[in-house]
Specification:
Elements (H helix, E strand, L loop, with lengths): L8 E6 L5 H10 L12 E3 L5 E6 L4 H7 L4 E5 H6 L5 E5 L5 E8 L14 E4 L2 H11 L4 E4 L7 H4 L4 E6 L3 H5 L2 E10 L1 E5 L7 H21 L1 E9 L3 H7 L7 E4 L5 E9 L3 H10 L3 E7 L6
The structure holds adenosine-5'-triphosphate and zinc ion.
Length: 292
């Protein structure tokens, strides 16, 4: 991959599905705007040297492996199932799901050993095979590409192994959740040879830096509140701020405004104490980007 002409980096994302919107939203927060993408295979951005390819998620790992795309956003489940030789750059924190064993009400599945000699229907034969190998279990795998959950009703399998989020689909098919075989989320993956092209490597690192700043901002909130001076010392001890909080005197001379970046969910641990200590006007705001 040697050329002196610099070209855009090629990013593959899912064309239409559960990862599409979140992938585009992440890019937007990274300052990558695209327009009119619907029904097009490839779209470039005016604000970043990138061409975005819209593809079926199942094809993304292989395209990235073969260099058809330089990088991609896809579920870890698909990367693993396709056995793709790629480099995984970052977990993206969305598209979370589990691949689980599920079984009919009439059966029981308490430990992996209960799978011995059973027939398992799945769209993830490789993941299931690896799991059975790890647990040292002999079982038959039937590969189905969709509607895996009806296999027990049809009498073609004893157990199914499929993606579960809420469990509603399982319930509708009178199946119970068994144990988890694989936990997945969307990941950013890269072609392994990308680093040999200096220009593309630089673009990739720039994108990665932006993505990391968006992800760390998501994990944090900006807290603002007014605090009586008398309680300040006690309240400061409660705040696990990334940096030292900002303290601004207020006109009334008896209280101060405190601003701090805190972990997203932490406020619920301290809100009652803050109120008891006289904190008022508590505001918690999202942070779009956090640049280290
Ligand atoms: P495509 O047409 O691109 O092949 P698909 O039907 O295979 O689409 P989707 O159902 O859109 O794929 O799911 C894409 C990815 O989203 C999954 O591979 C998985 O990583 C993730 N995901 C998260 N939650 C769920 C869920 N509840 N059901 C299915 N996939 C989920
Ligand atoms: Zn798919």
């Amino acid at each position: 991959m040697k050329n002196n002409e610099s070209r855009n980096i090629k990013l593959a994302i899912q064309k239409k599905g559960r990862l599409t919107e979140k992938s585009l939203e992440l890019l937007k927060l990274c300052g990558i705007d695209i327009e009119n993408y619907s029904e097009r295979l490839v779209v470039s951005s005016n604000t970043f040297p990138i061409d975005i390819f819209f593809l079926r998620d199942d094809d993304i790992p292989e395209y990235v492996q073969d260099g058809v795309a330089d990088i991609g956003i896809v579920g870890e489940n698909v990367v693993y199932e396709k056995k793709a030789e790629i480099e995984s750059l970052e977990n993206l924190g969305f598209g979370k799901c589990k691949i689980m064993m599920a079984y009919p009400d009439s059966a029981s599945l308490e430990s992996p050993q209960d799978l011995m000699n059973k027939t398992i229907a799945t769209s993830y034969p490789h993941i299931v095979r690896e799991y059975l190998k790890k647990e040292n279990i002999q079982a038959k795998i039937i590969e189905l590409s969709g509607s895996v959950e009806i296999a027990p009703t049809l009498g073609v399998a004893d157990v199914v192994c499929d993606i579960v989020s809420t469990g509603n689909t399982l319930m509708m098919n009178k199946l119970k959740k068994g144990f988890t075989v694989f936990e997945s989320q969307a990941v950013l993956i890269s072609n392994k040879e990308l680093a040999t092209d200096g220009n593309l490597e630089t673009i990739k690192q720039d994108l990665l830096r932006r993505i990391r700043s968006v992800l760390s901002a998501r994990r944090s909130k900006y807290l603002m509140m007014n605090v009586p001076k008398l309680s300040l010392e006690k309240i400061m001890k409660l705040i696990p701020s990334l940096r030292s909080p900002t303290i601004v005197p207020l006109a009334d001379n008896e209280s101060v405004a405190v601003h701090a970046v805190i972990p997203s969910d932490y406020i619920w641990n301290i809100v009652d104490i803050l109120k008891n200590e006289g904190a008022s006007g508590i505001l918690l705001m999202p942070i779009e980007n956090m640049i280290p």
